[in-house]
Amino acid sequence: xxxxxxxxxxxxxxxxxxxxxxxxxxxxxxxxxxxxxxxxxxxxxxxxxxxxxxxxxxxxxxxxxxxxxxxxxxxxxxxxxxxxxxxxxxxxxxxxxxxxxxxxxxxxxxxxxxxxxxxxxxxxxxxxxxxxxxxxxxxxxxxxxxxxxxxxxxxxxxxxxxxxxxxxxxxxxxxxxxxxxxxxxxxxxxxxxxxxxxxxxxxxxxxxxxxxxxxxxxxxxxxxxxxxxxxxxxxxxxxxxxxxxxxxxxxxxxxxxxxxxxxxxxxxxxxxxxxxxxxxxxxxxxxxxxxxxxxxxxxxxxxxxxxxxxxxxxxxxxxxxxxxxxxxxxxxxxxxxxxxxxxxxxxxxxxxxxxxxxxxxxxxxxxxxxxxxxxxxxxxxxxxxxxxxxxxxxxxxxxxxxxxxxxxxxxxxxxxxxxxxxxxxxxxxxxxxxxxxxxxxxxxxxxxxxxxxxxxxxxxxxxxxxxxxxxxxxxxxxxxxxxxxxxxxxxxxxxxxxxxxxxxxxxxxxxxxxxxxxxxxxxxxxxxxxxxxxxxxxxxxxxxxxxxxxxxxxxxxxxxxxxxxxxxxxxxxxxxxxxxxxxxxxxxxxxxxxxxxxxxxxxxxxxxxxxxxxxxxxxxxxxxxxxxxxxxxxxxxxxxxxxxxxxxxxxxxxxxxxxxxxxxxxxxxxxxxxxxxxxxxxxxxxxxxxxxxxxxxxxxxxxxxxxxxxxxxxxxxxxxxxxxxxxxxxxxxxxxxxxxxxxxxxxxxxxxxxxxxxxxxx
Length: 762
Prior knowledge:
The protein is of the alpha/beta class. The chain has a four-stranded mixed β-sheet. A three-stranded mixed β-sheet has the order 9-11-10, sandwiched between helices. Strands 1-2 form a two-stranded antiparallel sheet. α9 (149-166) packs across α21 and α10 (177-189) runs antiparallel to α21. Mean pLDDT is 90; it is low at 1-41. Its cofactor is Zn(2+).
């Protein structure tokens, strides 16, 4: 059958049965391994579960829950690690104690008041840290030549003195110190009575001295120049040609000697006389002389000629005056000589013996008495000028010296010319207020009485004493370590170490001077007349003479302390004649110091001053004094070694366009900044690191340098800057701050500023 036959053929190919072939192929393609694969290729997690079931004997559900828990734990661990990496770190300041006391906050407020956080100190140090002084053109009062932190302290101190005098309990018994204090102050304030007296108090003295040719009441024939010179020194405390004063004897410890020094110039220093003739200060000075003479009833033409004559005569004296630089070395200015030898050396009729005997009647003075002369060459030359001066010129000069000294105590009609000259000399536009003038006058001449009362009202507490003494000890230890490492000769090192070992530290008045009896005896010679300022001023001279006599008689060992504590500008000072450091009370009150102020503030202010005073003991020129409170012999090897020890650093600073003496003073300050900084770090390591409320973002070293920098912030007139440089070798405040920034690398480093390629001189 065809259909059936065809079907069979379809299942056969080339005589082969296709079903058979297919069956054989399927059979032959099955690998034993492949056959077991379906069992092995079961899902991985199922196999894991099976293994876990077999090992743990747990059922499937329990194992799934366990795995889920483990996975969640791993995920959480990863999250925690990630958060710990990304989480903000704890602020550094929160890792240490934070001072939030009222004292810390007050100190912080003082500093913040002068900081401009938007300005980087790396780019503009003055604008960043002294922002008030940089931004406020007239921050300086118009009656002040300079305004800074120290001037603020002085101003507050004057206000305290005024308050203390004004609130003295009444009635005040006549003749008591309190009575003298109050009526001396009130006599100064009583401008109406002063105006009524006009020029009479001064012209009466001129008449006693034989008259003044410019006032046409002088007789050439009767004029005795040496007699007038004697009376001016003895009776009126005026010092033409030379000055007589009492100072510690540099060769006999704890004793005093009479010293004779150059004097007699109307301008602050010989350097002023070398200014151009048309310089405003020179013109103003001659106008001042002219106007004063006119106010005393002279014609304008005569007064103008007199002014020129006086200026030219003073210029002759200025030419022989030693430069101030020469007066720095105590060895060179120590020239002990007997009065008889002095007379022979100067070959003059200057009555030194008569003057000294009359000035100090209770002190035994003979021709063989020894005095100290600052500059023998000057006295010899001034003697020649005196001998060659005609009687007319000498009368004019001697009486002018008297007028110049007593003029400030006359009425406004006579002092107007003086104020005008001072405006030009100091760069001020207004005179100070009358109460300020009178308070300064009382403080100058009755300083002990004032200070004793203020120490009662504002006592130096035991805690203050401990803080300051600990600060002194820490700084002294750092200085001693530096001296031990310094590359000096054995002799110089021993000399310096001996001074540091015996160095003492003193706060405020000596205890013995605060007693009522001491103060009463001290002012016993002072006679104050009610509503008569001029007589009070004359009596002040008598008081000063009696004090100097006590010093010469060695009955007042506290004398040198009293002198150094009563400077107008308060400062920590080193006294070489006592080898001690004194800190005036006015620096131990707000705003300069308060118990509880942050450590960097303490070290940035008083710490630097204490360090500078300690360094003064071992750096030129006070290093020339020994620990036994005597000066070295000029032939002692230590003298040259001491002077040479600072030569390299001084010469380095001189390249900054400042003179040698200014460089030496600046070097001492720079070293003090570094020593105080290192001492603060020592104290911090012992007491622990801290941060301070209101200054949280600043580290201790930043607060230290900000504090110190702000003690240098100032506004000062150009005239005052010139005067400070000429008289005291001080560079301007801004220049000093710049020197500190450039030479103390820790300063810019504290603010993360670059110090690369910067040469330091210290």
